Amino acid sequence: MLLAREFGWTLDEMRQLKPSELVAILQELQRQKTIQEYHEMRNKWAFLAAVFTNGISALAGMFGKKKPKQVEPDAFISKEIKKAVERLTGKAQQEEDRWAALIQEAKAKGLKGPW
Fold this sequence. Notes:
Number of strands: 0
Strand content: under 5%
Shape: flat
Distance between the termini: 50 Å
Largest sheet: none
Number of domains: 2
Structural class: mainly alpha
């Protein structure tokens, strides 16, 4: 039903798909849906929570001596979700590739390190 709803495909059109094509399509839809939910969570709910928290701390700061620390929207999103989205978007892989290239370059120059 997900494919019919997302693409407007009929049952006959879905039956013509190979199992590997169906799996690839469903995985991509799941990836896109997860990324979309993360962005909605960060741009709406975490942003509102940060604004509310910063507003309350600013009011409390008027009566105290310390200046309140500003809260970022990412503070309201768990690290597991952030890592999952980074992995899905390929940012984590790009970062690993960058470090691997730097290590190879250092080895080529004859530098010694913990690697």
